[in-house]
């Protein structure tokens, strides 16, 4: 245990990088969790609309997000190789891509009405989905800029500034969210529109914080964060070569989840609401794991840059232990005590007996999620490891096959041709995640990632 704790790639290294990132993701989780609790107590239609619209917005961001987030690997490998002057160059290619992506996302305001009205949801839910989606799309450029600027820190293993920024943003968002949704202190009651505006305000605050933290005189001297501003074709081309598959991969992951949620909506409002609530609870497991995913990606990237592959292998094993320790605890909570978690989402004005059908469905779904998150932990660690080395094309093609053949086609067929119910499609979702976890594990075990490099 002591040997695993100390030394390169041990628990200490993983936690030094991962814990601040976990805290950052946890703060995001808390922000989203409280946002949905506030909306669920505001109205049943609001919580039914929040997750589809939120996922749809995030889906559109994922391609750009995935590409920009790969700046983290460039910074990690340049740091490991001792080429600090290239860190600022890499950062600016991410910022440029973020501005382009943000402009594209803002344009999705226009087709929102046609898209959600054609999704098969009730007219009132669709109206709220359109409102929420449009607000988030206009604020998306700010979200992408924070991803680019945070890579300056995560790639170098300096994750505490990212943690502090995200926690401050969350502490700002939660009260603002409640005030704007319910209309307090003389402000109008905005409902789901208020929730969207609070989220965008949080993204804006985070952007301001990162701008102040990154673009300092010291960072400019060491890493050229300001003097390297501009378009640098050789690095941009490599970012596209390795980052585009990462963007496609992230897009396909969220596409599968979005498709699943929208197909659930075709089963009925109660099924959609129960699934939305269950996914909100599942975020307690998923988003903190994104922090450890980034940690193992960074550690593997730095070990590749230093030509110390054994350190990368050790960090992967350490991360896997930590992930499973966390996921097992949550899985037991979801199985043994689902009722208190689900009760948090009961809308005001809805009696316990009226909420009972949603509660009953939610209890069963959380049992599926208990298995789902364990498979997700396997996928999180080994996917992060091979991406840190540059094995992004394999990740992309795996997601192409899995999302099409193990999620989208089976769920569509089950609902439209076999009139399958809620629990059947949740079984398919669990099998899909198990397939990803096993596939990435075997890819890692081949060792091909050890000879890869992105710089």
Automatic annotation (TrEMBL):
Membrane topology qualifier: Multi-pass membrane protein
Example GO BP: monoatomic ion transport
Origin superkingdom: Bacteria
UniProt protein name: Multidrug-efflux transporter
GO CC terms, sorted: plasma membrane
CDD domains recorded: MATE_like_7
Keywords: Antiport, Cell membrane, Ion transport, Membrane, Transmembrane, Transmembrane helix, Transport
Annotated InterPro entries: MATE_fam, MATE_MdtK, MdtK-like
Membrane-crossing residue ranges in chain numbering: 14-34, 46-68, 89-112, 132-152, 164-185, 191-215, 242-265, 277-300, 320-338, 358-382, 394-415, 421-442
Molecular function as annotated in GO: antiporter activity; xenobiotic transmembrane transporter activity
Cellular compartments annotated: Cell membrane
Main location (coarse class): membrane
């Amino acid at each position: 245990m002591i040997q695993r704790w100390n030394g390169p790639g041990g628990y200490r290294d993983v936690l030094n990088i991962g814990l601040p990132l976990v805290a950052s993701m946890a703060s995001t989780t808390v922000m989203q969790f409280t946002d949905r609790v506030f909306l669920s107590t505001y109205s049943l239609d609001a919580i039914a609309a929040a997750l589809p619209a939120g996922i749809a917005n995030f889906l559109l961001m994922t391609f750009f997000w995935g590409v920009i987030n790969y700046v983290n690997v460039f910074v990690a490998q340049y740091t490991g190789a001792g080429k600090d002057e290239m860190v600022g160059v890499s950062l600016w290619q991410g910022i440029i891509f973020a501005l382009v992506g943000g402009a594209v996302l803002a344009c999705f305001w226009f087709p929102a009405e046609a898209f959600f009205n054609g999704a098969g949801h009730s007219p009132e839910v669709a109206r709220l989905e359109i409102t929420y989606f449009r607000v988030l799309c206009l604020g998306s450029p700010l979200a992408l800029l924070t991803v680019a600027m945070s890579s300056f820190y995560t790639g170098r293993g300096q994750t505490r500034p990212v943690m502090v920024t995200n926690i401050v943003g969350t502490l700002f968002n939660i009260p603002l969210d409640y005030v704007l949704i319910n209309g307090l202190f003389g402000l109008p009651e905005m409902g789901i529109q208020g929730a969207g505006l609070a989220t965008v305000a949080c993204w804006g605050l985070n952007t301001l914080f990162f701008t102040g933290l990154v673009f300092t005189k010291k960072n400019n001297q060491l890493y050229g964060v300001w003097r390297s501003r501009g378009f640098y074709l050789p690095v941009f081309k490599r970012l596209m070569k390795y980052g585009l598959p990462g963007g496609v991969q992230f897009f396909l992951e969220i596409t599968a989840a979005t498709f699943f949620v929208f197909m659930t909506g075709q089963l009925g409002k109660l099924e959609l609401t129960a699934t939305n609530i269950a996914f909100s609870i599942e975020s307690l497991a998923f988003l903190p794991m994104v922090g450890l995913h980034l940690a193992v990606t960074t550690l593997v990237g730095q070990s590749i840059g230093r030509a110390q592959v054994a350190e990368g292998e050790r960090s992967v094993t350490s991360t896997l232990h930590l992930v499973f320790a966390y996921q097992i605890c949550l899985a037991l909570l979801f199985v043994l005590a689902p009722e208190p978690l689900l009760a948090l989402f009961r809308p005001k004005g809805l009696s316990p007996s009226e909420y009972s059908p949603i509660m009953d469905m939610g209890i069963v779904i959380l049992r599926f999620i208990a298995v789902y998150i364990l498979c997700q932990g396997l996928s999180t660690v080994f996917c992060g490891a091979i991406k840190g080395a540059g094995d992004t094309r394999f990740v992309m093609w795996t997601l192409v096959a899995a999302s099409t053949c193990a999620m989208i086609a089976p769920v569509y067929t089950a609902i439209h041709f076999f009139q399958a119910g809620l629990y059947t499609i949740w079984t398919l979702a669990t099998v899909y995640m198990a397939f990803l976890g096993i596939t990435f594990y075997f890819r890692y075990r081949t060792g091909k990632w050890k000879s890869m490099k992105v710089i």
